[in-house]
Amino acid sequence: MVILNTLGKIEKTYISKKIGLYISNLPDGGENNLNNWQEGIRETLSIAYQIQKIEASKYIGKIGIESKNIIQDKVIEKAKTVLGISDESEDVLIEKFIDYLSKNMMCIDFDYSSSSIPDDKDSFSCFGGGTCEEDPVEKILNFISFFKGIDSKANIPYAIYSTGQRFDYEYRHLFSVTMEYKNQIDELMRTGTLLDNYLVDEKDYYKLDYLCNALFDMDAEKSNTYYYMKVYSLCALFLEKDHESELDYKLPYMMDLPKSLSERKGMAELMRKIRNKIAHGDFKRLNSLVEEYATKYLDGKFWFDYSEYTRPSWVLLHISCSLEEVVRKLIYLMLTDSARLDNLRKLKKCKAD
After folding, report:
1. How far is CA 65 from CA 56, 61, 72, 117, 147, in A?
2. Domain for residue 68, yes or no?
3. What is the per-residue pLDDT for 184?
4. Mean per-residue pLDDT, 237-259
5. Which residue from 33, 53, 130, 206 puts its CA 20 to 30 A from 243's CA?
6. Summary mean pLDDT of the chain
7. What are the residue ranges of helices labelled H in the chain?
8. pLDDT band for position 270 (50/70/90)?
9. 3-state secondary structure string, 91-118?
10. Same-domain check for residues 50 and 152
11. Assigned domain for 287 exists
C-alpha cells in the first residue's frame, strides 16, 4: 500500500480491474478493528510532526531564517485552513488536524482476490512483494508516472508514504497533501483503462510486471554505464526481433524528428556499439566511441559543465536521457497502439541502408 499526496473523501474505486488496483481512503479496521490504517497513521503523523519540529528548530535564527520554527508555522497554518479553526491551542489543533488527515488521506493498493493476475501453480508471481522487497504498488505508480512523462500536461499523484523499504524518512513528506486532486484521480482512471485494454494474455501481465521492476528508481544515476545498458536493453525489448543490429534502423523512427534520418541512423549505430563495448568490457574502445559520439552529435550544439560531470559521463547521460524518451514512446505505443509497435518490431532493413 502507498498513501498519496491527495486529500479528500473517496469511495473504493478500481483504477485497473485486471490487476485489482484500487484507490480509497485508509482502512478504518471495521467492526473487528483489523488492518486499521487510520489508527496507525495517526501515530506516525504525530511522531513525524515532532521530528520535523525538532529538525527545523536547529535552523532558527540561522542562514537568514527568522526566529520562528518554519515547519511548526507551516503545519499549523495548513491545519487552520483545512479545519477552519483559528482559536485552538497548538496541541489541540494538531491533534484534530492529524485525525482529519487519517480519515481523508487516500491510498492505493492491490485487491488480488478481485484481479485477473495469473496465480496458478505454473505461473510466476506478478505484482507481488515480500517484506524484504519494494512495495508493488509503489512500482506500478512509478511506472504510470514514467510513461505519463510523455505528456507534459499529465498530473499524477505521488506517494508520500509506503509500506516498502525506501521510505525511511516518510515523516518529511506526510504533511505535503493537497485537496486539489480531481484531475489527478481522473488521470489515474484513464491510465487504468489503458492497462486493462492491454492486459489480454498471461504474457502481458509478465511483461508489465517486468517493466515495473525495470523502471523502478530509474532516476537513481543516469551518467554511468550500467544505466546506459539498462535503458538500451529496454529499447531492445520492444524493437529487437532477431538481431540487436536491427536497432540501427528501428531506433531512428522513435528518436527526435528535428534531426535528419541519416543523422539519427548514425546515432543509433554508435549507441549500439557503445552498448556492446560496455557489455564486453572493452572500455578502451568504449572511450573512443563515446568521444566520437560527442564530436559528431553534441559538440557545438550543447554546453556541458565539466565541474559537475566528466565529459564521458555527460555524453552517457545525454544518450541515456534520449533513450529514456524512446522507452516512454514505446511503452505508450504498447498501451495505445500495439499493432504499430508490432509493425515496427517486424520492420525490415531497406536495401538502400
Report:
1. 10, 5, 13, 52, 39
2. yes
3. 86
4. 92
5. 206
6. 88
7. 37-57, 70-83, 90-104, 136-147, 182-198, 202-215, 225-239, 247-250, 261-279, 283-297, 311-336, 338-345
8. very high
9. HHHHHHHHHHHHHHEEEEEECHHHCCCC
10. yes
11. yes
**HSE-up of 89 (CA within 13 Å, CB side)?**
2
Closest to 40 (Cα-Cα) out of 22, 51, 27, 49 = 27
295 or 52: which leads in pLDDT = 295
Mean pLDDT confidence for 283-289:
94
pLDDT of residue 71: 84
Q: Does the pLDDT value for residue 200 go beyond 80?
A: yes
pTM of this prediction exceeds 0.85: yes
- CA 221, distance to chain mean position in Å, is 14
Pairing verdict, β 13-16 and 2-7: unpaired
What would the mean pLDDT of 46-69 be, rounded to a whole number? Answer: 79
DSSP assignment, residue 6? E
- Residue 341's SS3 state is helix
User: CB-based contacts of 348: which residues, under 8 Å, 6+ apart?
Assistant: none
Q: Report if residue 73 sits inside a domain.
A: yes
Is the pLDDT confidence value at 243 over 60?
yes
- Same structural domain for residues 53 and 197? yes
How many residues are present in the chain? 353
279 within some domain: yes
Mapped to the 3 state alphabet, what secondary structure does 151-198 carry? Answer: CCCCCCCCEEEECCCCCCCHHHCCCCCECCCHHHHHHHHHHHHHHHHH
Strands 13-16 and 21-25: antiparallel
Cell of 184: 489527478
- The CA–CA distances, whole Å, from 64 to 41, 59, 68, 72, 73 equal 34, 9, 11, 17, 16
Judgement on whether residues 109 and 237 belong to the same structural domain of the protein: no
CB 202 within 8 A of CB 208: no
Question: Comparing C-alpha atoms, which of 312, 347, 306, 341 is closest to residue 327?
Answer: 341
Q: Which residue has the cell 488492518?
A: 35
Instruction: Return the closest-CA partner of residue 15 out of 113, 115, 105.
Output: 115
| Band of pLDDT at residue 35, cut at 50, 70 and 90 | confident
Domain that holds residue 247: 225-345
Same domain, 279 and 135: no
